[in-house]
Amino acid sequence: MNRRMAIWMTAGALLLAAQAFSQSEKPTGQGRAVVTILAKQLGEPPASVSQQDISIKVNGKPSVATSWASLRGPDARLELVILIDSSARTSLGSQYGDIEHFVNGLPLNVKAAIAYMQNGRAVFAGPLTADHAEVLRALHLPAGSPGSSASPYFCLSDLGKHWPSGDRGTRRAVVMITDGVDNYERRLDLQDPYVEAAIDDSVRAGLVVYSIYWLSQGRANSTMYANNSGQSRLIEVTEATGGKNFWMGIGNPVSLQPFFEELAHRLGNQYELGFSTHLDGKPAVEKLKVKVGGPAVDVTAPSQVFVDRAGAAE
Fold first, then answer.
1. With a cut of 70, which residues of the chain have pLDDT below it?
2. What is the pLDDT of residue 62?
3. CA atoms of 182 and 185, how far apart (whole Å)
4. Residue 19: what pLDDT?
């Protein structure tokens, strides 16, 4: 009996040791996210937020904030691509003065470029550069040809996969100017596979996507359909990546300037959040929830984030 008891005790100890080893060897994941912090009241400066004010969950499980760095100032590098729908009517040209004003007002630490949605690709009309005058030389009227951009989400996926810089340490932002209508998936489907693929590719590439809704008459059979479907999908993409969809009712805005002003304000009030979490399998896009305690602030954070293996090369 004593011998049998000793065998059982030894087996139990080995099992506990194996479990402990398995848990200790469970891979740890890491990720980064760009978080926008604004004041609750319009016009007031945002309150200062520290790392101690941050709590996060990845896939519903509490995770650890490992860094929290302000992205203000000349050292906060930014790469920004304005992605214009080539199917947009040439009336969009009336807004080009607002685009020029925005680009000319970008800080010197911002590299920018203009690309066009063409046949499912993001086609660059010029290089990614801090020479903002050179950026604007690439600005031209869209073709205005229905279908020439295929799906705007194909184009966003292509941009995520072929970002014109390999510097993963720099913040990346996209401004899509489009009505968001996906002619390859015309149903108002909250699980549009092309939208989901665009979100996945954007999150993996570290893109924060903003969109300016510009209705292209004639691209959809119904103006109401274009508004409901296009705007819903643009909101889905921007919220997933931590950006914002700018729009004004069922028609086109008189001016894009208010949108660009808010965008500039958002870009100037961002933080980079670093975190660690358990990695249950291969690196993947996971759900993220960020809460900020302390000061009363308006927080915009991505709802999805890429979790990689800890220590993985940038």
1. 1-27, 144-150, 184-190, 217-227, 250, 313-314
2. 95
3. 6
4. 45
Domain count for the chain, please give it: 2
**Domain extent at residue 51:** 27-72+269-309
Q: Helices H, strands E: what count in the chain?
A: 8, 13
- Of 197, 131, 132, the residue nearest 159 (C-alpha): 197
Query: Which phi and psi (to 5°) does residue 191 adopt?
Result: -120, 45
pLDDT at 188: 60
Q: CA torsion, points 86, 88, 90, 91, in degrees to nearest 10?
A: -150
Which among 110, 192, 128 is positioned nearest to 157, based on CA atoms? Answer: 192
Q: What radius of gyration, in Å, describes the C-alpha atoms of the chain? A: 23
Instruction: Kindly state whether residues 122 and 225 are assigned to the same domain.
Output: yes
CA torsion sign for 299, 300, 302, 303 is: positive
The structure's pTM equals 0.87
314 in any annotated domain: no
Q: Is residue 17 part of a domain?
A: no
Q: What is the DSSP letter of 116?
A: E
Per-residue pLDDT, 172: 98
Give CA–CA dist 217/223, Å, rounded.
7
